[in-house]
Amino acid sequence: MPKKGNIQQLLNDAFTISWGERRPASNYLYPTDMGAEDPESHHYIEPTLPIPRHQGLYDLLSYARLAPTTPILPSRKAIRERLRDFVTESQQETLQRLPSNAKMSIALDCWTSPSKHAFMAITGYILDQDWEYREVLLGLNQFLILQQHKIIHRVLAVTTDNASNNKTLVTAVKESVKTLQEGIDLTIFQVPCLAHLIYLVRLRLRQRITTLSQLPDDLVRGLAVFINGTPQRKETFLKLQSSNGQRLQLLPIQDVRTRWNSTFLMLRRAKSLHATFGKYCQDYSQPHFALSPEWWRQIDYLLYTLQPFFTFATLVCRTKDSSINLVFRGYDKLFDHLERSMSQLRRKKAHWKQMMLSFLEAAKERPVK
């Protein structure tokens, strides 16, 4: 956050530009002084950084010009206390909407701020009396916050990532609960992240490949790395598209092992640039990256196979609503797609289609190991 003096100078400059002179400072200005009922009040305290270029700051300066005298920003401690009170009131207001016999889900998220400070956020997700989906930031202190709000016995689910050590966590939780609550039949189970599981299906497929040189995506990946390796090659590739009359010039994409859907996006981009790929390999002596018509057919089939996985993973990641109810339905849809694809391939005799069939069978067999 900028120093107080810098922001104060912005305020003074704003008044100087507006009225041509500085006024004596005699009143304090808080970002929330417009009143809780003002729908714009939340806009002025958005945490988006960097603050000097944030539209909310300019709106705040415009609001400050309406004051009879130059506003003075309060101290950092005063602002911190006001914001803490605002957060506490917001928490209580949201939690009061939780019906007395209802449960809530808890999600933990570790992240790092632009100032390199690490936090663990605890967010609660509830359905209120009107069946409206709501979420509330409970705090940044691990689980002590649940005791503070007296909701430790009302936790229905805990959302985590799909890290392998979470299986150990679930086992430990089961043993602890069994020890503390003997005689109570309490079922605790883990529902894996659907988006991550979709990615693991693709990863499982790749792990079964023993002859990587037979797959076209390796050539696409290699050519993408080669072209993006220097500014000169990028410029040459873009000029080839311009000479072919292509209005939108694009560069090839290299997939990343840990980034979901990146292989699908790499192949989809390559398919849209297949004419430029061929001309580049021919004109600039890169025949080892050239793809035959049969390999482009394989890319078409890979795109067909991966399209539903891309769609489901994208929808799950983008939704802001509860998605646990979509998990098993998503499993059914994706397994139906795999079974239809395998049924079509069983009738084919081409070697690469039989190889693709074995890959799909491996993906369906056990995507997570």
Automatic annotation (TrEMBL):
Example of a GO cellular component annotation carried by this entry: nucleus
Domain of life: Eukaryota
Keyword field: Metal-binding, Nucleus, Zinc, Zinc-finger
Principal cellular location given in the protein's record: nucleus
One Gene Ontology molecular-function label: zinc ion binding
Keyword Nucleus: yes
Subcellular location: Nucleus
Protein name: Uncharacterized protein
Organism from which the protein derives: Penicillium brevicompactum
